[in-house]
Protein backbone atom coordinates (compact mmCIF):
# COMPACT_ATOMS: atom_id res chain seq x y z
CA UNK A 1 0.00 0.00 0.00
CA UNK A 2 1.26 3.46 -0.85
CA UNK A 3 2.39 5.67 2.03
CA UNK A 4 3.41 9.30 1.83
CA UNK A 5 6.21 10.81 3.90
CA UNK A 6 7.04 14.48 3.99
CA UNK A 7 10.42 16.13 4.42
CA UNK A 8 12.03 19.23 2.99
CA UNK A 9 12.56 19.34 -0.77
CA UNK A 10 15.99 20.82 -1.47
CA UNK A 11 16.68 19.92 -5.08
CA UNK A 12 14.03 19.91 -7.82
CA UNK A 13 12.82 16.99 -9.91
CA UNK A 14 11.20 13.58 -9.58
CA UNK A 15 13.08 10.33 -9.06
CA UNK A 16 11.43 6.90 -9.05
CA UNK A 17 13.54 3.91 -8.19
CA UNK A 18 14.56 1.29 -5.68
CA UNK A 19 16.01 2.23 -2.32
CA UNK A 20 19.66 1.54 -1.61
CA UNK A 21 20.92 2.49 1.83
CA UNK A 22 24.22 4.11 2.40
CA UNK A 23 26.63 1.79 4.20
CA UNK A 24 26.98 3.88 7.33
CA UNK A 25 26.71 1.16 9.96
CA UNK A 26 28.41 2.68 12.97
CA UNK A 27 31.34 0.54 13.93
CA UNK A 28 31.49 0.36 17.69
CA UNK A 29 34.77 -1.20 18.77
CA UNK A 30 34.71 -3.31 21.97
CA UNK A 31 35.69 -1.46 25.16
CA UNK A 32 38.55 -3.74 26.18
CA UNK A 33 41.46 -2.64 28.41
CA UNK A 34 44.96 -2.73 26.95
CA UNK A 35 48.11 -3.26 29.03
CA UNK A 36 50.08 -0.07 29.84
CA UNK A 37 53.11 -1.20 27.83
CA UNK A 38 51.03 -1.22 24.65
CA UNK A 39 49.85 2.38 25.04
CA UNK A 40 52.60 3.96 22.98
CA UNK A 41 52.12 1.54 20.11
CA UNK A 42 48.35 2.13 20.18
CA UNK A 43 48.85 5.90 20.12
CA UNK A 44 51.14 5.48 17.14
CA UNK A 45 48.52 3.30 15.38
CA UNK A 46 45.83 5.92 15.98
CA UNK A 47 48.04 8.67 14.57
CA UNK A 48 48.88 6.63 11.47
CA UNK A 49 45.21 5.89 10.83
CA UNK A 50 44.27 9.55 11.21
CA UNK A 51 46.98 10.63 8.82
CA UNK A 52 46.02 7.99 6.26
CA UNK A 53 42.35 9.00 6.40
CA UNK A 54 43.21 12.71 6.11
CA UNK A 55 45.42 11.95 3.10
CA UNK A 56 42.62 9.89 1.51
CA UNK A 57 40.09 12.69 2.01
CA UNK A 58 42.47 15.23 0.49
CA UNK A 59 43.09 12.92 -2.47
CA UNK A 60 39.33 12.49 -3.00
CA UNK A 61 39.00 16.27 -2.83
CA UNK A 62 41.66 16.76 -5.50
CA UNK A 63 39.79 14.31 -7.69
CA UNK A 64 36.43 15.97 -7.17
CA UNK A 65 37.54 19.63 -7.30
CA UNK A 66 35.30 22.65 -6.79
CA UNK A 67 33.13 23.05 -3.73
CA UNK A 68 33.41 19.33 -2.96
CA UNK A 69 37.16 19.73 -2.64
CA UNK A 70 36.77 22.47 -0.06
CA UNK A 71 34.37 20.31 1.95
CA UNK A 72 36.65 17.26 1.86
CA UNK A 73 39.63 19.33 2.86
CA UNK A 74 37.69 20.69 5.79
CA UNK A 75 37.00 17.08 6.78
CA UNK A 76 40.69 16.21 6.49
CA UNK A 77 41.43 19.10 8.88
CA UNK A 78 38.72 17.84 11.24
CA UNK A 79 40.45 14.45 11.35
CA UNK A 80 43.72 16.07 12.34
CA UNK A 81 42.28 18.41 14.96
CA UNK A 82 45.04 18.63 17.62
CA UNK A 83 42.56 18.64 20.53
CA UNK A 84 40.83 15.54 19.27
CA UNK A 85 44.19 13.82 18.84
CA UNK A 86 45.23 14.85 22.35
CA UNK A 87 41.99 13.37 23.67
CA UNK A 88 42.68 10.11 21.80
CA UNK A 89 46.19 9.96 23.32
CA UNK A 90 44.78 10.58 26.80
CA UNK A 91 42.22 7.81 26.42
CA UNK A 92 44.82 5.32 25.19
CA UNK A 93 47.11 6.27 28.09
CA UNK A 94 44.43 5.10 30.54
CA UNK A 95 43.85 1.77 28.81
CA UNK A 96 41.67 2.25 25.69
CA UNK A 97 42.54 0.56 22.42
CA UNK A 98 43.29 2.96 19.54
CA UNK A 99 39.91 2.29 17.86
CA UNK A 100 37.93 2.66 21.09
CA UNK A 101 39.79 5.86 21.98
CA UNK A 102 39.01 7.35 18.55
CA UNK A 103 35.38 6.27 18.87
CA UNK A 104 34.96 7.85 22.32
CA UNK A 105 36.90 11.03 21.59
CA UNK A 106 34.78 11.69 18.51
CA UNK A 107 31.60 10.98 20.47
CA UNK A 108 32.50 13.72 22.96
CA UNK A 109 33.27 16.17 20.17
CA UNK A 110 30.09 15.19 18.34
CA UNK A 111 27.98 16.14 21.33
CA UNK A 112 29.53 19.60 21.41
CA UNK A 113 28.90 20.09 17.70
CA UNK A 114 25.33 18.75 17.76
CA UNK A 115 24.36 21.32 20.40
CA UNK A 116 26.10 24.27 18.80
CA UNK A 117 23.37 25.59 16.46
CA UNK A 118 22.06 24.49 13.06
CA UNK A 119 25.16 25.17 11.01
CA UNK A 120 27.57 23.25 13.24
CA UNK A 121 25.00 20.53 13.86
CA UNK A 122 24.94 20.13 10.07
CA UNK A 123 28.63 19.21 10.26
CA UNK A 124 27.90 16.24 12.56
CA UNK A 125 27.51 13.94 9.56
CA UNK A 126 30.95 15.02 8.34
CA UNK A 127 32.43 14.24 11.74
CA UNK A 128 30.74 10.82 11.95
CA UNK A 129 32.08 9.99 8.53
CA UNK A 130 35.64 10.90 9.56
CA UNK A 131 35.30 8.77 12.70
CA UNK A 132 33.90 5.81 10.77
CA UNK A 133 36.77 5.98 8.33
CA UNK A 134 39.42 6.05 11.04
CA UNK A 135 37.78 3.27 13.07
CA UNK A 136 37.28 1.12 9.95
CA UNK A 137 40.92 1.56 9.10
CA UNK A 138 42.03 0.60 12.61
CA UNK A 139 39.76 -2.46 12.60
CA UNK A 140 40.87 -3.43 9.11
CA UNK A 141 37.30 -3.55 7.74
CA UNK A 142 35.95 -1.92 4.53
CA UNK A 143 35.15 1.80 4.59
CA UNK A 144 31.51 2.69 4.89
CA UNK A 145 30.17 4.34 1.80
CA UNK A 146 28.10 4.39 -1.38
CA UNK A 147 26.30 1.11 -2.12
CA UNK A 148 27.62 -1.12 -4.88
CA UNK A 149 25.06 -1.22 -7.66
CA UNK A 150 25.09 -1.31 -11.43
CA UNK A 151 21.43 -0.33 -11.59
CA UNK A 152 20.20 3.20 -10.92
CA UNK A 153 18.81 3.66 -7.40
CA UNK A 154 17.48 6.20 -4.90
CA UNK A 155 20.08 6.69 -2.21
CA UNK A 156 18.72 6.76 1.35
CA UNK A 157 20.94 7.77 4.23
CA UNK A 158 20.83 9.21 7.69
CA UNK A 159 22.80 12.13 6.30
CA UNK A 160 25.28 12.14 3.47
CA UNK A 161 28.94 12.68 4.05
CA UNK A 162 30.79 14.85 1.55
CA UNK A 163 33.50 12.23 1.01
CA UNK A 164 30.94 9.91 -0.58
CA UNK A 165 28.59 12.33 -2.26
CA UNK A 166 31.52 14.02 -3.96
CA UNK A 167 32.24 10.84 -5.88
CA UNK A 168 28.65 9.71 -6.53
CA UNK A 169 27.88 8.82 -10.09
CA UNK A 170 24.85 10.92 -11.07
CA UNK A 171 23.95 8.38 -13.77
CA UNK A 172 23.37 5.75 -11.06
CA UNK A 173 21.94 7.92 -8.31
CA UNK A 174 18.43 8.95 -9.26
CA UNK A 175 17.90 11.01 -6.12
CA UNK A 176 18.70 11.42 -2.42
CA UNK A 177 16.58 11.03 0.67
CA UNK A 178 18.09 11.74 4.08
CA UNK A 179 16.69 11.52 7.58
CA UNK A 180 18.67 14.44 8.85
CA UNK A 181 20.18 17.58 7.39
CA UNK A 182 18.51 20.76 6.30
CA UNK A 183 18.64 23.18 3.38
CA UNK A 184 22.21 24.16 4.31
CA UNK A 185 23.52 20.61 4.83
CA UNK A 186 26.07 19.19 2.43
CA UNK A 187 23.54 16.66 1.17
CA UNK A 188 21.41 19.58 -0.04
CA UNK A 189 24.26 21.59 -1.50
CA UNK A 190 25.75 18.60 -3.29
CA UNK A 191 22.38 17.33 -4.57
CA UNK A 192 21.84 20.72 -6.17
CA UNK A 193 25.38 20.68 -7.55
CA UNK A 194 24.79 17.21 -9.05
CA UNK A 195 21.34 18.21 -10.28
CA UNK A 196 19.52 15.23 -8.72
CA UNK A 197 16.22 15.52 -6.81
CA UNK A 198 16.60 15.43 -3.04
CA UNK A 199 14.48 15.45 0.07
CA UNK A 200 16.13 15.97 3.46
CA UNK A 201 14.95 16.01 7.10
CA UNK A 202 12.66 13.03 6.55
CA UNK A 203 12.31 11.05 9.78
CA UNK A 204 11.79 7.34 9.22
CA UNK A 205 13.60 7.21 5.89
CA UNK A 206 16.15 4.83 7.43
CA UNK A 207 13.42 2.26 8.08
CA UNK A 208 12.39 1.87 4.44
CA UNK A 209 13.52 -1.61 3.40
CA UNK A 210 16.35 -2.00 0.92
CA UNK A 211 14.97 -2.52 -2.59
CA UNK A 212 11.59 -0.85 -1.88
CA UNK A 213 10.27 1.22 -4.76
CA UNK A 214 9.90 4.88 -3.86
CA UNK A 215 9.08 8.07 -5.71
CA UNK A 216 10.85 11.26 -4.62
CA UNK A 217 9.46 14.69 -5.41
CA UNK A 218 12.31 17.11 -4.72
CA UNK A 219 10.07 20.11 -5.31
CA UNK A 220 7.26 19.30 -2.86
CA UNK A 221 9.47 17.44 -0.36
CA UNK A 222 7.21 14.35 -0.53
CA UNK A 223 8.24 10.78 -0.97
CA UNK A 224 5.84 7.99 -1.86
CA UNK A 225 6.73 4.52 -0.61
CA UNK A 226 5.36 1.73 -2.87
CA UNK A 227 3.70 4.31 -5.10
CA UNK A 228 0.54 3.23 -6.92
CA UNK A 229 0.51 2.96 -10.71
CA UNK A 230 -1.55 6.15 -10.90
CA UNK A 231 0.86 8.05 -8.64
CA UNK A 232 3.85 6.96 -10.68
CA UNK A 233 2.11 7.90 -13.90
CA UNK A 234 1.10 11.31 -12.52
CA UNK A 235 4.58 12.06 -11.19
CA UNK A 236 6.23 10.83 -14.37
CA UNK A 237 3.87 12.92 -16.48
CA UNK A 238 4.54 16.00 -14.34
CA UNK A 239 8.29 15.37 -14.55
CA UNK A 240 8.10 14.87 -18.32
CA UNK A 241 6.10 18.07 -18.71
CA UNK A 242 8.58 19.93 -16.61
CA UNK A 243 11.48 18.48 -18.57
CA UNK A 244 9.83 19.47 -21.83
CA UNK A 245 9.31 23.00 -20.50
CA UNK A 246 12.91 23.10 -19.39
CA UNK A 247 14.18 21.76 -22.68
CA UNK A 248 11.99 24.19 -24.64
CA UNK A 249 13.38 27.11 -22.72
CA UNK A 250 16.90 27.35 -24.08
CA UNK A 251 19.12 30.26 -24.87
CA UNK A 252 19.73 33.41 -22.93
CA UNK A 253 17.57 34.35 -19.98
CA UNK A 254 14.63 36.59 -20.82
CA UNK A 255 11.03 37.31 -19.86
CA UNK A 256 8.19 36.31 -22.20
CA UNK A 257 8.33 39.76 -23.83
CA UNK A 258 12.07 39.58 -24.42
CA UNK A 259 13.42 41.62 -21.51
CA UNK A 260 16.92 40.16 -21.13
CA UNK A 261 18.10 38.93 -17.74
CA UNK A 262 21.44 37.12 -18.17
CA UNK A 263 21.57 33.86 -16.23
CA UNK A 264 25.01 33.28 -14.77
CA UNK A 265 26.59 30.55 -12.68
CA UNK A 266 28.03 30.58 -9.17
CA UNK A 267 31.24 28.55 -9.09
CA UNK A 268 33.92 27.64 -6.58
CA UNK A 269 36.66 26.87 -9.10
CA UNK A 270 37.50 25.41 -12.52
CA UNK A 271 35.92 22.05 -11.61
CA UNK A 272 32.46 23.65 -11.54
CA UNK A 273 32.78 25.09 -15.04
CA UNK A 274 31.57 22.08 -17.11
CA UNK A 275 28.21 21.98 -15.29
CA UNK A 276 27.82 25.72 -15.79
CA UNK A 277 28.50 25.44 -19.51
CA UNK A 278 26.16 22.46 -19.79
CA UNK A 279 23.35 24.41 -18.10
CA UNK A 280 23.78 27.18 -20.65
CA UNK A 281 25.15 29.73 -18.20
CA UNK A 282 25.89 32.98 -20.00
CA UNK A 283 28.94 33.42 -17.86
CA UNK A 284 29.92 33.35 -14.22
CA UNK A 285 28.20 35.76 -11.85
CA UNK A 286 30.09 34.72 -8.73
CA UNK A 287 33.46 32.98 -8.66
CA UNK A 288 34.03 32.34 -4.95
CA UNK A 289 37.83 32.46 -4.97
CA UNK A 290 38.19 31.54 -1.30
CA UNK A 291 38.17 27.86 -2.26
CA UNK A 292 41.63 28.39 -3.77
CA UNK A 293 42.82 29.51 -0.35
CA UNK A 294 41.74 26.44 1.58
CA UNK A 295 44.64 24.18 0.54
CA UNK A 296 47.03 25.71 2.97
CA UNK A 297 45.85 27.23 6.22
CA UNK A 298 49.05 29.23 6.67
CA UNK A 299 49.73 30.90 3.34
CA UNK A 300 47.92 32.44 0.38
CA UNK A 301 48.20 30.45 -2.89
CA UNK A 302 51.07 31.62 -5.10
CA UNK A 303 50.42 34.07 -7.93
CA UNK A 304 51.17 31.30 -10.47
CA UNK A 305 48.65 28.92 -8.93
CA UNK A 306 46.03 31.64 -8.98
CA UNK A 307 46.79 32.65 -12.59
CA UNK A 308 46.29 29.03 -13.64
CA UNK A 309 42.93 28.65 -11.87
CA UNK A 310 41.60 31.99 -13.12
CA UNK A 311 42.75 31.29 -16.66
CA UNK A 312 40.92 27.96 -16.77
CA UNK A 313 37.69 29.69 -15.81
CA UNK A 314 38.13 32.67 -18.13
CA UNK A 315 38.91 30.42 -21.09
CA UNK A 316 35.64 28.56 -20.63
CA UNK A 317 33.59 31.66 -21.38
CA UNK A 318 35.08 33.34 -24.42
CA UNK A 319 33.01 36.46 -25.12
CA UNK A 320 31.04 35.76 -21.92
CA UNK A 321 31.04 37.58 -18.63
CA UNK A 322 33.02 36.33 -15.65
CA UNK A 323 32.59 38.07 -12.30
CA UNK A 324 35.37 37.16 -9.90
CA UNK A 325 34.91 37.94 -6.25
CA UNK A 326 38.15 38.66 -4.44
CA UNK A 327 38.84 36.64 -1.33
CA UNK A 328 35.98 36.65 1.19
CA UNK A 329 37.67 35.35 4.35
CA UNK A 330 36.44 35.61 7.91
CA UNK A 331 33.22 34.88 9.83
CA UNK A 332 31.96 31.51 8.53
CA UNK A 333 35.05 31.19 6.28
CA UNK A 334 38.00 31.91 8.59
CA UNK A 335 41.58 31.58 7.36
CA UNK A 336 44.26 31.07 10.02
CA UNK A 337 46.75 33.48 8.53
CA UNK A 338 44.27 36.31 7.96
CA UNK A 339 41.35 36.10 10.35
CA UNK A 340 41.77 37.43 13.89
CA UNK A 341 41.12 34.57 16.31
CA UNK A 342 39.78 36.63 19.18
CA UNK A 343 36.79 38.49 17.80
CA UNK A 344 33.66 38.36 19.96
CA UNK A 345 31.40 38.58 16.84
CA UNK A 346 33.31 37.37 13.78
CA UNK A 347 30.42 38.16 11.39
CA UNK A 348 30.67 41.78 12.54
CA UNK A 349 34.44 41.83 12.63
CA UNK A 350 37.29 41.89 10.15
CA UNK A 351 36.03 39.86 7.21
CA UNK A 352 35.62 40.19 3.45
CA UNK A 353 37.05 43.41 2.04
CA UNK A 354 38.05 44.54 5.55
CA UNK A 355 40.48 41.61 5.74
CA UNK A 356 41.96 42.48 2.35
CA UNK A 357 42.42 46.14 3.25
CA UNK A 358 44.34 44.99 6.34
CA UNK A 359 46.43 42.65 4.14
CA UNK A 360 46.96 44.65 0.93
CA UNK A 361 49.62 42.20 -0.27
CA UNK A 362 47.04 39.41 -0.49
CA UNK A 363 44.66 41.60 -2.50
CA UNK A 364 47.50 42.82 -4.74
CA UNK A 365 48.62 39.27 -5.57
CA UNK A 366 45.07 38.28 -6.38
CA UNK A 367 44.43 41.27 -8.63
CA UNK A 368 47.80 40.85 -10.37
CA UNK A 369 47.06 37.17 -10.97
CA UNK A 370 43.68 38.11 -12.44
CA UNK A 371 45.24 40.72 -14.71
CA UNK A 372 47.74 38.12 -16.00
CA UNK A 373 45.09 35.45 -16.45
CA UNK A 374 42.91 37.82 -18.49
CA UNK A 375 45.73 38.95 -20.78
CA UNK A 376 44.85 38.35 -24.42
CA UNK A 377 41.46 36.80 -23.59
CA UNK A 378 38.25 38.12 -25.12
CA UNK A 379 36.28 37.52 -21.91
CA UNK A 380 34.50 40.39 -20.14
CA UNK A 381 36.24 40.24 -16.80
CA UNK A 382 34.56 41.88 -13.83
CA UNK A 383 35.97 41.93 -10.32
CA UNK A 384 34.02 42.62 -7.16
CA UNK A 385 34.66 43.02 -3.47
CA UNK A 386 32.65 41.29 -0.75
CA UNK A 387 31.29 43.17 2.27
CA UNK A 388 31.48 46.73 0.97
CA UNK A 389 29.94 49.01 3.61
CA UNK A 390 30.22 52.45 2.05
CA UNK A 391 31.78 54.68 -0.59
CA UNK A 392 35.17 54.70 1.18
CA UNK A 393 35.30 50.88 0.97
CA UNK A 394 34.30 50.98 -2.70
CA UNK A 395 36.98 53.58 -3.45
CA UNK A 396 39.69 51.61 -1.61
CA UNK A 397 38.85 48.56 -3.69
CA UNK A 398 38.70 50.46 -7.00
CA UNK A 399 42.06 52.11 -6.20
CA UNK A 400 43.62 48.69 -5.53
CA UNK A 401 42.29 47.41 -8.87
CA UNK A 402 43.68 50.43 -10.73
CA UNK A 403 47.05 50.12 -8.98
CA UNK A 404 47.28 46.48 -10.05
CA UNK A 405 46.71 47.58 -13.67
CA UNK A 406 43.62 45.44 -13.95
CA UNK A 407 41.59 46.04 -17.08
CA UNK A 408 38.18 44.97 -15.84
CA UNK A 409 34.96 46.41 -14.50
CA UNK A 410 35.11 46.94 -10.73
CA UNK A 411 32.06 46.25 -8.63
CA UNK A 412 30.79 46.09 -5.08
CA UNK A 413 28.76 43.38 -3.46
CA UNK A 414 25.76 44.65 -1.56
CA UNK A 415 25.71 42.47 1.54
CA UNK A 416 25.46 45.13 4.23
CA UNK A 417 22.30 47.24 4.50
CA UNK A 418 24.35 50.48 4.53
CA UNK A 419 25.55 49.73 1.01
CA UNK A 420 21.97 49.27 -0.21
CA UNK A 421 20.74 52.39 1.57
CA UNK A 422 23.54 54.46 0.05
CA UNK A 423 23.90 52.56 -3.22
CA UNK A 424 24.15 55.71 -5.35
CA UNK A 425 27.09 56.89 -3.29
CA UNK A 426 28.83 53.50 -3.60
CA UNK A 427 28.19 53.60 -7.35
CA UNK A 428 30.27 56.78 -7.66
CA UNK A 429 33.31 54.54 -7.23
CA UNK A 430 32.37 51.29 -8.99
CA UNK A 431 30.64 50.22 -12.18
CA UNK A 432 28.25 47.58 -10.92
CA UNK A 433 26.54 46.12 -7.88
CA UNK A 434 25.94 42.47 -7.04
CA UNK A 435 23.51 41.62 -4.26
CA UNK A 436 24.74 38.93 -1.88
CA UNK A 437 21.31 38.20 -0.46
CA UNK A 438 22.60 35.55 1.97
CA UNK A 439 24.66 38.02 3.95
CA UNK A 440 22.29 40.90 3.24
CA UNK A 441 19.56 38.92 5.04
CA UNK A 442 21.94 38.11 7.88
CA UNK A 443 22.79 41.76 8.47
CA UNK A 444 19.33 43.17 7.80
CA UNK A 445 17.66 40.94 10.37
CA UNK A 446 20.58 40.65 12.80
CA UNK A 447 20.20 36.90 12.28
CA UNK A 448 23.40 34.86 12.13
CA UNK A 449 23.49 32.66 9.01
CA UNK A 450 24.85 29.82 11.10
CA UNK A 451 22.23 29.81 13.82
CA UNK A 452 19.27 27.55 13.09
CA UNK A 453 17.09 29.17 15.73
CA UNK A 454 16.87 32.37 13.65
CA UNK A 455 16.56 30.73 10.22
CA UNK A 456 13.04 32.17 9.73
CA UNK A 457 14.71 35.54 9.28
CA UNK A 458 17.05 34.19 6.62
CA UNK A 459 14.13 33.71 4.21
CA UNK A 460 14.96 35.79 1.11
CA UNK A 461 11.25 36.50 0.59
CA UNK A 462 11.27 38.80 3.62
CA UNK A 463 9.74 42.08 2.36
CA UNK A 464 12.45 44.14 4.11
CA UNK A 465 15.08 42.31 2.08
CA UNK A 466 13.08 42.90 -1.09
CA UNK A 467 12.99 46.63 -0.22
CA UNK A 468 16.79 46.72 -0.04
CA UNK A 469 17.05 44.86 -3.35
CA UNK A 470 14.70 47.43 -4.91
CA UNK A 471 16.70 50.35 -3.49
CA UNK A 472 19.95 48.97 -4.93
CA UNK A 473 18.43 48.21 -8.33
CA UNK A 474 16.81 51.67 -8.55
CA UNK A 475 20.12 53.35 -7.66
CA UNK A 476 21.95 51.37 -10.33
CA UNK A 477 19.31 52.24 -12.92
CA UNK A 478 19.57 55.94 -12.01
CA UNK A 479 23.35 55.74 -12.48
CA UNK A 480 23.06 53.80 -15.72
CA UNK A 481 24.85 50.82 -14.16
CA UNK A 482 23.98 47.17 -13.55
CA UNK A 483 22.80 45.42 -10.39
CA UNK A 484 22.73 41.60 -10.29
CA UNK A 485 21.85 39.08 -7.60
CA UNK A 486 24.30 36.30 -6.76
CA UNK A 487 22.91 35.08 -3.42
CA UNK A 488 20.73 31.98 -3.04
CA UNK A 489 17.63 34.12 -3.70
CA UNK A 490 18.37 34.02 -7.43
CA UNK A 491 17.97 30.23 -7.58
CA UNK A 492 14.31 30.26 -6.52
CA UNK A 493 12.41 30.39 -9.85
CA UNK A 494 9.45 32.35 -8.47
CA UNK A 495 11.64 34.77 -6.57
CA UNK A 496 13.79 35.20 -9.69
CA UNK A 497 10.72 36.69 -11.43
CA UNK A 498 10.14 39.03 -8.47
CA UNK A 499 13.80 40.11 -8.46
CA UNK A 500 13.49 40.84 -12.17
CA UNK A 501 10.39 42.90 -11.41
CA UNK A 502 12.38 44.81 -8.81
CA UNK A 503 14.83 45.87 -11.52
CA UNK A 504 17.66 43.41 -11.01
CA UNK A 505 19.69 43.07 -14.24
CA UNK A 506 21.23 39.57 -13.93
CA UNK A 507 20.77 36.44 -11.84
CA UNK A 508 23.58 34.15 -10.75
CA UNK A 509 23.06 30.75 -9.12
CA UNK A 510 24.29 27.16 -8.84
CA UNK A 511 24.32 25.64 -12.35
CA UNK A 512 21.56 23.10 -11.62
CA UNK A 513 19.03 25.87 -10.93
CA UNK A 514 19.60 27.71 -14.21
CA UNK A 515 17.14 25.68 -16.39
CA UNK A 516 14.37 26.09 -13.79
CA UNK A 517 14.86 29.83 -13.49
CA UNK A 518 15.13 30.21 -17.27
CA UNK A 519 11.87 28.32 -17.83
CA UNK A 520 9.97 30.25 -15.18
CA UNK A 521 11.17 33.64 -16.34
CA UNK A 522 10.19 32.85 -19.92
CA UNK A 523 6.56 32.39 -18.85
CA UNK A 524 5.94 35.98 -17.73
CA UNK A 525 6.28 39.46 -19.12
CA UNK A 526 8.33 42.13 -17.40
CA UNK A 527 5.10 43.94 -16.46
CA UNK A 528 3.80 40.77 -14.75
CA UNK A 529 7.08 40.42 -12.87
CA UNK A 530 6.80 44.05 -11.78
CA UNK A 531 3.26 43.48 -10.52
CA UNK A 532 4.39 40.37 -8.63
CA UNK A 533 7.28 42.35 -7.12
CA UNK A 534 4.96 45.13 -5.98
CA UNK A 535 2.59 42.60 -4.40
CA UNK A 536 5.46 40.89 -2.59
CA UNK A 537 6.77 44.22 -1.25
CA UNK A 538 3.31 45.17 -0.05
CA UNK A 539 3.23 42.06 2.17
CA UNK A 540 4.12 41.82 5.83
CA UNK A 541 5.87 38.47 5.93
CA UNK A 542 7.94 36.17 3.76
CA UNK A 543 5.09 33.66 3.42
CA UNK A 544 2.62 36.34 2.51
CA UNK A 545 5.04 37.79 -0.04
CA UNK A 546 5.49 34.37 -1.64
CA UNK A 547 1.75 33.79 -1.84
CA UNK A 548 1.08 37.29 -3.16
CA UNK A 549 3.64 36.93 -5.95
CA UNK A 550 2.31 33.48 -6.83
CA UNK A 551 -1.25 34.81 -6.97
CA UNK A 552 -0.27 37.63 -9.35
CA UNK A 553 1.69 35.33 -11.64
CA UNK A 554 -0.94 32.61 -11.77
CA UNK A 555 -3.58 35.25 -12.58
CA UNK A 556 -5.68 34.60 -9.47
C1 LIG B 1 25.94 36.15 -0.23
O1 LIG B 1 26.26 36.50 0.91
O2 LIG B 1 24.76 36.21 -0.67
C2 LIG B 1 26.95 35.63 -1.15
C3 LIG B 1 26.68 35.39 -2.40
O3 LIG B 1 28.18 35.35 -0.62
P1 LIG B 1 28.51 34.06 0.30
O4 LIG B 1 27.28 33.20 0.33
O5 LIG B 1 29.69 33.41 -0.34
O6 LIG B 1 28.81 34.72 1.60
MG1 LIG C 1 28.37 36.81 1.33
3D architecture notes:
The protein has 556 residues and is α/β, with parallel strands linked by helices. The protein folds into 3 domains: 3-23 and 145-243, Glucose Oxidase, domain 1 (3-Layer(bba) Sandwich); 36-139, Enzyme I, Chain A, domain 2; 254-525, TIM Barrel (Alpha-Beta Barrel). Helices cover 45% and strands 14% of the residues. It contains 22 helices and 16 strands. It has helices spanning 39-64, 66-79, 82-93, 98-114, 118-121, 124-139, 162-165, 186-194, 229-248, 273-278, 303-316, 353-358, 360-374, 391-403, 417-421, 423-426, 437-444, 463-478, 493-501, 514-521, 526-537, 542-553, and strands at 3-6, 8-11, 14-21, 153-157, 173-178, 198-200, 213-217, 222-225, 263-267, 283-288, 321-325, 380-385, 409-414, 432-435, 482-485, 506-509. The strands form 2 sheets. Strands 1-8-7-3-4-5-6-2 form an 8-stranded mixed beta sheet. Helix 19 links the parallel strand 15 and strand 16. Helix 9 packs across helix 20 (514-521). The radius of gyration is 24 Å and the shape is globular. 50% of the residues are buried. Phosphoenolpyruvate (PEP) binds at residues 286, 288, 328, 415, 436-439, 486-487.
Amino acid sequence: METTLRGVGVSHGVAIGEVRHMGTAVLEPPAKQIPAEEAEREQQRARQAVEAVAADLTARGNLAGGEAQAVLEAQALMAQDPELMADVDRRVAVGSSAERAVYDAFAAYRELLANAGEYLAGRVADLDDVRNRIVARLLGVPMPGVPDSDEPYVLVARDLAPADTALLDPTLVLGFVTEEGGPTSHSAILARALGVPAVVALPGAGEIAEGTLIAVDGSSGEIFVDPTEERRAALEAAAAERKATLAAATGPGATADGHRVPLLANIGGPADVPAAVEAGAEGVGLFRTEFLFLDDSKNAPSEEKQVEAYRQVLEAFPEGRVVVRVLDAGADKPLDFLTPGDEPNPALGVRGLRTLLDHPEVLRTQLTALAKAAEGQPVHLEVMAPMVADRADAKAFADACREAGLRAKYGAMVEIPSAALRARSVLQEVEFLSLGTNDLAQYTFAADRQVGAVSRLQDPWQPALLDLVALSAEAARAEGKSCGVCGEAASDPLLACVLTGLGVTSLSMGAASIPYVRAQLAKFTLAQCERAAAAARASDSADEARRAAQAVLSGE
